[in-house]
Amino acid sequence: QVQLVESGGGSVEAGGSLRLSCVASGDTWSTNCMGWFRQAPGKSREEVATLYIDDGGTYYVDSVKGRFTISQGNVGKTIFLQMNSLKPEDTAKYYCAADRFSSRLRCLDGAFGPEYWGLGTQVTVSA
């Protein structure tokens, strides 16, 4: 089992920045794909960004390219999501997700189906 804990959400004005963190614990030795999803009220969950830990490959949904950056921490299985130039449409609950023994293609093809989920952290962007 893998446990994921997110932090760093909050409220910010449009144009501002936030940095989300996700720490994985438990049976993480085989966890090689981690990422972020978001879900706004009344909408389906959306894949935002993923990171293939084995080689640092990344995927971003088009709406966040150039504004968001996913990265890995130096210790353990920790990832970050640096969110700049935030827009009101970025308002959502953001979830960390992780998968074990993932292929690179599966991790980065925009159709990531993770095995594990965090409980989420709220991001609210006001106009």
Summarize the structure.
It contains one helix and eleven strands; from the N terminus they run βββββββββαββ.
Order of helices and strands: EEEEEEEEEHEE
Task: Report the span from N to C terminus.
Answer: 40 Å
What would you call the structural class?
A: mainly beta
Largest sheet: 7 strands, mixed
Structure, explained:
This protein is mostly beta strands and 127 residues long. The strands form two sheets. Strands 2, 4, 5, 6, 9, 10 and 11 form a seven-stranded mixed β-sheet that branches. A hairpin with a 6-residue loop joins strand 4 and strand 5. The radius of gyration is 14 Å and the shape is globular. The termini are far apart. The relative contact order is 0.32. The model has no long low-confidence stretch (mean pLDDT 96).
Features:
53% strand, 127 residues, single chain, mainly beta, seven-stranded mixed β-sheet
List the helices and strands and how they pair.
Elements (H helix, E strand, L loop, with lengths): L1 E6 L2 E4 L4 E9 L4 E9 L6 E7 L4 E4 L7 E5 L5 E6 L8 E9 L3 H5 L7 E2 L3 E6 L1
Parallel strand pairs: 2-11
Antiparallel strand pairs: 1-3, 3-8, 4-5, 4-9, 5-6, 7-8, 9-10, 9-11
